Amino acid sequence: MNILQSKLEEKLAGLPVSMAIEMPQGGWIGPPDQAQLRIHCRNAAALAALAAGDVGVVGAAIVEGHVEIDGSMRDVMAAAAALVPSDPVAARSTWWSRMLARSRSAALHTLTKDSEQIQFHYDVSDAFYGLWLDPRRVYSCAYYAQPDYNLAQAQEAKLDLICRKLRLQPGERFLDVGAGWGGLLLWAAEHYGVQGTGITLSRNQHAHVNRLIEEKGLQGRVRMLLSDYRHLQVDEPFDKLASVGMFEHVGRAHMQEYFGTLKRLIKPGGLLMNHGITAGGTDNEQLGAGMGDFIEKYIFPGGELIHVSAVLEEMAHAGWEMVDTDNLRPHYAKTLWAWSDALEAQLDEALAILAQKGNPAQAAKTLRAYRLYLAGCATGFEHGWVALHQMLAVMPDGSMTTGSMPGAQSQYPFTRDYMYR
């Protein structure tokens, strides 16, 4: 324990925030009355993980109640980022690890497992998400077109940016793959006059959006289906597609099937907006320092991040032509901090909502997991460990006369000024 204590004392000296650690057997490392952040360790394993910089393991210990924290989540994450011993995206894969990862990806993304995994995350509680999301419950990266935008304004700016990039027109058939609580689907219908279809695997989201469709009088113009994208059958392909915050759940082994399915659903010459989280490293299977394992266990079972270069390659293999790619990474950091701050301001109410399912101990675990997840992801985006890309692609129709320029073969004008007018 003396060696471990010496190592921890050395770690504490280099942190950007003052921290004190309560030892399992009693006593403190660092003065607790002067610390911005106090860590109460209940077992030696958590203490060893803290010394090693295995922040994902420490996070799991917090969720399970073996470690308690006193301090703001911003201070927690400043300390966690400093404790990570090396670049968490620097790991290099081998042919063997890639083969294992692909086999695991294939096994994790069957139709049944995908449905279970989506419901594990999104059906926690609509009221819980409603506490810290914007009023439209847009659960994806906002767009801070103006630095002083609040979260609601930034989310509306993101919805409108996607609609503009897709050049949505009245009467067009529009599909939102993984439509969440309907923010984009309803915005596109109300502001751009599309005939909208959304799909989700979450029963809570499906019921919520159908209530909104009825309340807004959009029956006949908008529909929300409880369907896997692979099962969706349509009489006529769509003019435009959007997939926002969804393809992270597809899995590397199913990327070809995913983009191939979207190809089946689009008209020749149509546009696709693929908006989602991408890996910060080109070769790592997941985030290091235990962070990937934490997210897999407590937040997004089956989630997989792929570098944008690999996503674009998979897209090209399916016949899509990338026409615009936009990295919004810092926007997602700001979005996540807004979510985190909103949750931190309502912890008692959040716990009461989660406890309505009748298991107070599980409710407390879920809340601890989400507190770490939101603030931890904000930190990851700030540091560039993960990124967020909007990838606009077209499905060329093969005609040299389609579009505003010879050879466009699509509705895309091959200029970008229209996106920001």
TrEMBL record:
Active site: C377
UniProt entry keywords in alphabetical sequence: Lipid metabolism, Methyltransferase, S-adenosyl-L-methionine, Transferase
One Pfam family here: CMAS
SUPFAM superfamilies: S-adenosyl-L-methionine-dependent methyltransferases
GO annotation, biological process: lipid biosynthetic process; methylation
GO molecular function, one term: methyltransferase activity
Matches recorded under CDD domains: AdoMet_MTases
Superkingdom assignment: Bacteria
Keyword flag Methyltransferase: yes
Gene3D superfamilies assigned to the protein according to its UniProt record, in alphabetical order: Vaccinia Virus protein VP39 (3.40.50.150)
Similarity comment: family membership: Belongs to the CFA/CMAS family.
Name of the molecule in the record: Class I SAM-dependent methyltransferase
